[in-house]
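INPUT
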Amino acid sequence: MIKRWLSHPFVDLALKALGRNRLQTGLTLLGMTIGVATVLAMMAVGAGAQQSIEQQVRAAGLNQLTVRAGNWRPKVEDTGEAVAHQGDARDTLVLPLYRGDVLPIAFHPEDDPMEKHDHPLARQRLGDLEAGLGSAATLTFADAEAIKELPGVQYVAGGVHENARVHVGGKRWFTRMHGTDVEMPSIKRGWMLAEGRFFTRREQDNAAQVIVIGQIVADKLFGPGARAAGQEVTLWNQPFEVVGVVTSATWVVRPAPGDDQFDAVYMPYTTTHRLLNLSKLNDITITAASSGDVSRLARDITMLLRQRHGIGDDQPDDFTVLTQATKALTTGGLPPSVARAVAGNVAELEKVTLEQLATTLERASRTMTWLLAAVAAVSLVVGGIGIMNITLLSVTERTREIGLRLAVGARGRDVMRQFLIEAVTISLAGGVAGIILGVIAAALIARTLNWATVVSPLSVLLAFGVAGAVGVFFGWYPARRASRLDPIVALRRE
Amino acid sequence: MSLLETRELTKEYRVGDHIVHALRGVSLAIDAGEFVTIVGPSGSGKSTFMHILGCLDRPTTGQYLLNGRDVSTLPPDELARVRNEMLGFVFQGFNLLARTSAVENVELPLLYTRQGVVRAGDRRKKAMAALEAVGLTDRAEHHPNQLSGGQQQRVAIARALVADPSVLLADEPTGNLDTATSHEVMEIFARLRRERGLTIVVITHERDIAAYGSRTIDFRDGKVTSDVHHDQALAEPSVR
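OUTPUT
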């Protein structure tokens, strides 16, 4: 096809004409190449930044939601009283935010700092996070399937959670057991398999006795550095084959004893169901395709589940939808009293905080991409001026030829097309060379500066298209000039 | 009906403030198969007349009928079509494309036919046939800089022939050639007229070249001053 195109008389003509001024053509080509390469490389840098922001946002789980069975809320009077009795300086600061009539969500009474405890807090105890949630048996596998059908949902995994004692020979370790879905590794972006693999869909369908263990469990049972995959462990007096070891993929999170992800073991939830004779799910984990969509999805899931569970308008939910934002506030860094005040008082909290941060970052990086591309586009304009220059030169040099062509029957538009093809030929050739150079440049930037760069097919297509457009745009004027020549005047020109 | 007929052609140019009258009413009729030579001093209007005959220019007033059709008011694209289909040009300076082989030069008009671009194979075949008519088949792949002046002009004649026109227009075709070569070129014109019945109009200012024509027309100051038929077979009054 390319050969046929190249042998088209007008293209052939253009190539010949360009061959006549090799040096000028080469320099013009170089200008165009640099222009296209710059644009492409800059877009790659911008897109890379955008993607790494997106990835970090995902890794942070901002697009993650969890539905837990059951619904627990503290009594309003209790917390109100506690604040009145025992406000310290920190609490006073948050007091104005706190309104007693708003129900804080997702708290265990033991976590209330106003209470005096003589036992470890809930989250200080192994495998006892947020007790009270997930304990009611209200969620089913069918619920998970229904959620999967909602628009904007990326992955769904149902889970059953138990405490378990894992044995290997004489060693044993008390840890958290998660019966989960094969999609879990897609949801947990912060995961990495240190050894082996995750269990397969087939193993899940067969309720196979396979197990994936967290890094901490592997270290405790087999010793640090020892191979765990392929070994056998015992759980509930049943033998399980260890198929893989999960660990953290980011330096931000280091596996530590007592954590919920890596001091834990994972098996297909079907296996858990079979062995423990269960049929319900404790929770369902969902990721949204877009992190800005989490609030909307949380609302949709709430509505869907209320409908599926036949909950009347005046009845409370028999489940709890948690977004990463509310989870972060309740279990993470913030002092619980602050978290409670914030979570209790700001509707769609995650939307104004973490999600907004995410979208702002994404928007900022997109703006940066376009800004970089716009700056680079200046070099394309310079390249285009080069094309205009060489095409004008070509028209001037070949005025007699134009006159002759007109005399033998060429119309103005034939002449115009000829010079436009010439201009576009240079610009497209420069475009192709520029794309190659740009890809190389992007790879070099990624390698030497350690910046993430992404050359998307779209940006390559765009670069090629823009190159062609530059040829047409800057070739237009000289071509038009050529087409308007008077044949007699043109023929007389020396 | 004559093949070429002009009625009271005038052409005026504006040069600065004053108007140049290049043609001041030229009425001529040229029949198919005539070999007309046009002579006259510089500025006599013969080139302007030729440009109008060649549809490269349009008269200020008057009519030009080509094969009975008034082409003096046609739009540029239509004129281009007439040039492509009915007329062949030969220039003093040959006007061959450099770095382009003889046969490719000859193919040029075939790139602009209204039926669309002629297929490469057919183009080559027609171009070779035209080169054969001027006896240059063995030079088909030569570039202009490898050809003598006479050979270059023969390539140009082949180019004028390739689209099978009814009229050949030559503006001082021997102006850049030596005497012997000039005569060779004129012989070719004479032969083409004889063999193909082509109508040929040649501008020259050499009397011995003009003698090849069956008819010689003198121009002076934008007017025809004499119109002589040499060829008795075609001798009939055509000046009105």
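end of record. The domain at 4-234 of chain B is CATH 3.40.50.300 (Rossmann fold).
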